[in-house]
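Q&A log
Question type: sequence-to-structure
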Amino acid sequence: MDHWPLRNLVLRTPRLELRPDDDEGLAELADLALDGVHPPDRMPFGVDWTDAPRDRLGVNTLQFHWGQRAALSPQRWTVNFLVRRDGRVIGTQGLGAVDFPVLREVSSGSWLGLRHQGGGLGTEMRAAVVMFAFDHLGAVAARSSAFNDNLASHAVSRKLGYRPDGTFRQVRRGEPAEQTRLLVTPEWFRRPDWTLEVSGVTACLPMLTGREPAD
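Response status: OK
Response body:
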């Protein structure tokens, strides 16, 4: 028995490879975070994690991912895929769910190292996990959200067919800021013109969907 089948899960796009986080890859991710994720005068995240002092940012990155990995269950899970291009970690793409066996909805969040942004990779990696959720997990909806001034994230959502689904406010760096909720279903999803390659999914289904794979 493989006690952690997620180690064998792989999603492949034309330019990228996505695998659930592992400790060696997380060390690369922490170094990437230290190199910069966004301009210092902006904050695209609902949690101001990149504002941590440099001597804490790497440790915090590792501990956050370890905590989410340890808490994974069919009732509440987040799989943080490390995104690699040409064998090097360039960012992370998260896919999560609450009560997936009943609701069959997922949510996503991601970031790329600053020097890897602007080339369409954010769209490619989000498309990968949405296709994975719809085609392999049986999800009926995928959700996201972004601050209204996060134009890059909203552009990705539009390209993939997400629609606005309300707003909410939260504190960002001590000030109120508004986020827009976004929703896409299999019917609305604008599929890219490439095919996602997936391997190692069958053994992961009980962990993510709460059900055994069909014979």
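Response note: The domain at 5-209 is CATH 3.40.630.30 (Aminopeptidase).
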